[in-house]
Amino acid sequence: MNSELESLPAEIVDHSLIRIASDLSLMAWEQMVAWRPLLGASLDASVVDTKTSPNDLVTRADAQIEALVRGYLNRVRPHDLMVGEEGSEALDPVEFFPADFLFKLHAFDPGAGALNETADDGPRLEWHVDPIDGTVNYVRNIEHHAFSVGVCAVADEADAGLGLGDWQIGLVASPGLDATWLAAAGRGAFRVDGRLADHRENDSAIPARRLRGTPAGLSGRLLATGFAYALSSRGAQLAKLEDLMTGYDDIRRCGSAALDLCMVAEGRVNGYAERGLGIYDYAGGAVIVEEAGLGVSRGGSGGPTAAADTQEEVDRLIAAI
Known about the structure:
Blueprint: E1 3-7, H1 10-13, H2 16-39, E2 48-50, E3 57-59, H3 60-76, E4 81-84, H4 93-96, H5 99-102, E5 108-109, E6 114-115, E7 125-133, H6 135-139, E8 146-153, E9 167-174, E10 179-184, E11 188-193, E12 207-211, E13 222-225, H7 231-244, E14 250-252, H8 257-266, E15 271-275, H9 279-291, E16 295-297, E17 304-308, H10 311-320
Parallel strand pairs: 4-7, 13-14, 13-15
Antiparallel strand pairs: 1-12, 2-3, 5-6, 7-8, 8-9, 9-10, 10-11, 11-12, 15-17, 16-17
Helix pairs in contact: 2-3, 8-9
EC number: 3.1.3.25
Organism: Brevibacterium iodinum ATCC 49514
Protein name: Myo-inositol-1(Or 4)-monophosphatase
């Protein structure tokens, strides 16, 4: 789509928060791949549970990945706040992973056999993490699932965890699609093939595509959206669909808000709107949309979220959804 092949800028590669997010995504990717064969086609209750409905699934993989992320951040950014979807207790990555894997983590110190703290004099941060966005897809072996993390400053301690501060970085990593999307405030948005950490193994530049939204002149307009799991919400959503799709030719529903937002940034779809998300659902993707030069409106916890090529269209989608 509208993205140019270039090298990932050094200011992104060397960004301290991007390095941490890369470590987190590497752990998540590793465990998504490890758990997937154990889930099976029968949705075995020993590894799969439901949240709000039979199709709102949570797996032991979700919980384990979130626990590893929390354990990592407890060591590396101990003064920051992590907001996760599953509420899992911390699990120390150094005790969990073998040494050959730990060597791939930026924060791991082989000499000390521990993760190094990288706290700085900057503001306290919020790490909004979705261990597997698109769990239903993951369980059913549909490619559209991803790890997502977005980081913002704590605006006020009284409102900590609400995502109200300035957003710093976003990263979305999908084993199913074999791609990583990432962005840092003021530094642009990019897509990299595969895992970002895999490119550390050589000193050459990291090939990346800069994201700028839908190219001018592309025919047709597509809208991405999602639907609530609760049957009680279905009628109201469908009633709004005709108005929501004004100006669009077709609709796409891939089952992952994080990836929907990345598709807006890449220009694969022209807009996205959905209500009822958690902050962790859109945290990473919204930063990527913004840094691609597009408009985005964050809905907080449960409110309307939208992204499009212009702020005017974002406002229309928010009003319609």
